[in-house]
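Progress report, Aim 2. The chain analyzed during this reporting quarter is listed below.
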Amino acid sequence: MTATLVESVVAARFAKAVNIGLVTIVGVWHLGLDTLLVIRGWPVYEPQAAAAGAWLTLAFIQTWGSILLLRTGLNTRTARGLASASLVTGIVATAAYPPGETISDVSWASNTVGWFGVLLLMQRPLYELVTLLAANTAVTVCFLAADGTLDHVTISRLLATAYTTAGIQFTFACLARQLNEGARDASEVAARRAEHLAQATADETVHDERGRRYEYLRKQVEPLLRGMAERHLDPEDVIVRRRAAVEAARLRRLFMETDATPHPLLHDLRACASFAEQRGVSVTLLSYGEVPELSASVRRDLTEGPLLAMATAATRARVTVVATAEEVVVSVVADAPPETLADAQDSLTTSALFDEEEDQLWWEARWPL
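Predicted structure tokens for the chain:
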């Protein structure tokens, strides 16, 4: 997982938690508090249909906006459209109040429109929410002026109401944005740390693999090359040539083990087969079943028998891989000498014999799953 992906996942989860909290607040506010206020002021609303229609319209806007916010997010057009609709609906509801009751125990729409603005414009630039809150407050001022109640006392009440409602709504929006930014920053730090640890682990793995290869070369190949260089070993000797062929095949397998392929075991076997084919050996490689993912050490043990057989075969070799739900079986039949059995280094060989009449070697290794 890349750093960018980690950051986006963490930020998305945190933003979803904030959105769920906001939807809960707005839902409790409108379906709970507004419902009680509408019921209490029902006898004084004129017309009552306007108050009921405004409440139902805001409930519809709340439901639609909440679903979009939690599922897919609100695009610019939808968010602005629903916010504008809630503001207009708030005007209709305010018009149904009794004269002089724009700020009273029966007024409910102004606060609700402000919370709807937070709900619908949370993901929009902050100035859009400020514009909605200012317009919502301006509507209240206009109705107070129309009723002729815009005096010093009413202005003081208006300022106190705006401070405790619009101020809280604006503060909540700013706080949610700060929390989202904090989550994004934290996810960036976590992603960078995870990337650093992953890189360190990869470097350590590469270092260990290089060390293993060097140790193999030092123990297996270096004595052979030094013996021939110092003329302690005769390159024309059949045994020396067979040993050189085996070590060359093992080296080829060693360098192929780290290749990124969909079928690593078959890839290793093909590498051994191609080396034998360069010597003129006819190699047949058969595979049955879906070979599961195996570690490099297991693949090394499973391919040891075929490697030796193909490296020392005279003319032909047939390798068969059978994968079942219980085990992976690798077998080889080749016209290799019986001395090949003495060179085995694996721990998985279950059957190995030399047929003198047919002059061929049969080898089988199994790995239980």
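The beta strands are 282-288, 316-323, 327-334, 349-355, 360-368. The mean pLDDT is 81. These observations will guide the mutagenesis work planned for the next reporting period.
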